[in-house]
Amino acid sequence: MDNINLQTKKIFLYARKSTDEPERQILSIEAQLFELREYAKKEGLNIVREFVESKTAKEPGREIFNEMVASIEKNEAEGILAWHPDRLARNSIDGGRIIYLVDTGKITTLKFPTFWFDPTPQGKFMLSIAFGQSKYYVDNLSENIKRGIRQKLRNGIWPAWAPLGYLNDKNQRKIVIDKEKAKHIKRAFEMYATGEYPLAQIRKIINSLGLVGKKGKMLSVSNYQYMLKNKIYYGIIEYNGEMYDGKHEPIITKKLFDLCQEVMARKSKPKSPKLKPYTFRGFFRCGECGCFITTETQKGHNYLRCTKRKNPCEQKYVREEIITSQIKEEIKKVSLSSAWANASINYFENEKMKTAQAESSFAQKARDELVEIETKLDRLLDLQLDGSLSQTEYVTKKHKLILAKKDLEEKISSFGRKSNNRFELAINFIKEANQAEKCAQQENPERIRDFLKKIGSNFLIADRTLVLDFKNAFKIAEKYHADPANAREVPINFAECKTWRRGRDSNPGGSFNPTAFREPRFQPLSHLSILKIQKSKLFYFYFNPLSPTSRRINGARPPDSLHKSTTPPKAGVP
Questions:
Q1: CB-CB neighbours of 318 under 10 Å
Q2: Tens digit of pLDDT for each residue in 112-132?
Q3: Model confidence at 295, in pLDDT bands (50, 70, 90)?
Q4: Most distant CA pair in the chain: distance in Å?
Q5: Domain count, the chain
Q6: Cβ pair 187, 180 in contact under 8 A
Q7: What's 8's domain CATH number?
Q8: Backbone angles phi, psi at 426, to 5 degrees
């Protein structure tokens, strides 16, 4: 009799798995359907429709489940067949809806191969217990997962699927750099930091290089904006509003990241000139009215002329090749001999090795500060666990300490590089000055223009003549090259140099006044920020004497500890 009633009752079959990812629980639905169909044949159930869903039951809102319940409320079926009550509900709302439909008589039959149910008070009680156990299981599992995530974050490990540019290493249980994608991501940061590329253009360029998302899809503009704001790329993990010091290898530096944030904050727009790309357009100003010098083509020749936008101007046009010839002559004025350059470079290479040892103490001080910050972070966590700090106060203070720690780590890693950079700047200057004449002999207008920009400033054209100011060290190079008495190609013996002098402890804001030295040969070759060798001492180049007399300016004399002799050298003695 019971089998006859079941065959006449309309029953829905419901099968569900917790995720729609094909690589997870791939056999769950297929196995459920097979077992349920076999069970229906065995029990003689009249299945009128099958509902299959791939979505978690932890929270209400399953579309297919809601559709099935709505059909039952319309009396399209009288019962449900499922593998277990936890397939129907793992939350109190959906479980309550099933029990309520049983109470109102909409559901008269619930069939489970692994669970017994009867529409009686005892059966409904057991069903509510089954739903409660399902909810307890998923809640307990969620709490265990959250605890594991918190521990991973404390250890500096990214707790989820690796972000774009990284890969999940199952052996090391952390994320590692995806070298193929990381180089494109770094380039995107470098391009945006210049302020000359909008996000749309960066997307077009980087996508064309082959950067794609996890599922092989092309990245959108919003994807690039999110990428450029993601702290994970310089070593910081930001999770649920809190920051952690990641142990993964960063793709970019914090300095580059901060520069990108500044560009994004001011919404920098690119400067994309639409004018014809002349070599010297916008490079010079008029020596009479101060307007820009523009370029135009007439009868097959390029002519430079004043735009005359401010006031009437009497300056006439000049052919581009005439100005190019004048530029070459100006470049030759700062050329230095190979013998002098080689001796100077050898000197700086030796000083670089000595200074590396002296700066180790500064690096050690930074390491001590880093240990102090780590101690403060531990104390801060203890205060938060004791209840002495609220969560908001803890997150705010931790945020500041994490950023300070990251800055110190980058300073420590860059100590040696910065020390070498100071010497490299001086060495590069010597090499450039040595190559000046060779550059002037080239027929590449762009190369000549760029070299002129390195050595000079305030470029004017007045009466068809180029006028400029040489920068810092190149002023001294010009004097050395111009004086015939100093044209001897004799290497300088730095060991006998009498020019040891103390400089300022910090980088000066402007050029140093040459008249502050006892005689012209003691003048610095370039700006102090370029030639600073130690934190508080500077070594200056020794040139052949420009003047046979020595004099004292403003009553100043160098300290005895910084030079070998206070007696002015005799005239003509190098």
A1: 18
A2: 988 888 888 888 888 888 888
A3: confident
A4: 130
A5: 4
A6: no
A7: 3.40.50.1390
A8: -65, -40
CA distance 307 to 305: 6
DSSP-based three-state secondary structure for 36: helix
Res. 470: pLDDT tops 70: yes
Classify residue 300 as left (phi > 0), alpha (psi -120 to 50) or beta: left
- 443 lies in the same domain as 533: no
Structure tokens at 450: 């760029």
The residue written with tokens 């809102």 in the block is 61
Tokens 């000046």, residue?
Answer: 436
Question: In this structure, what are the phi and psi dihedrals at residue 370, rounded to the nearest 5 degrees?
Answer: -65, -40
Do 293 and 461 touch, CB atoms closer than 8 A?
yes
Domain that holds residue 302: 278-490
pTM of the entire predicted model:
0.45
Give yes or no for a contact between 125 and 93, defined as CB atoms under 8 angstroms apart.
Answer: no
Q: Residue 114 corresponds to which tokens in the numbers above?
A: 């692994």
Chain center to CA of 456 = 32
In a domain, 159, yes or no: no
* Residues linked to residue 296 through DSSP beta bridges, in sequence order: 303
Shared domain check, 326 and 243: no
CA distances from 572 to 379, 486, 500, 521 (A): 67, 11, 19, 11
CB neighbour list of residue 187: distance below 8 Å, 6 or more residues apart: 206, 209
Distance of CA 523 to CAs 71, 143, 222, 492, Å?
Answer: 94, 71, 54, 16
Please return the burial class of 350, using the count of CB atoms within 10 Å of its CB with bins 0-12, 13-18 and 19+.
exposed
In a domain, 90, yes or no: yes
If asked whether residues 248 and 351 sit together in one domain, one would say no
According to DSSP, residue 532 is labeled B
Rounded to an integer, what distance in angstroms lies between the CA atom of residue 382 and that of residue 401?
Answer: 15
Rounded-to-integer distance, Cα 296 and Cα 301, Å: 8
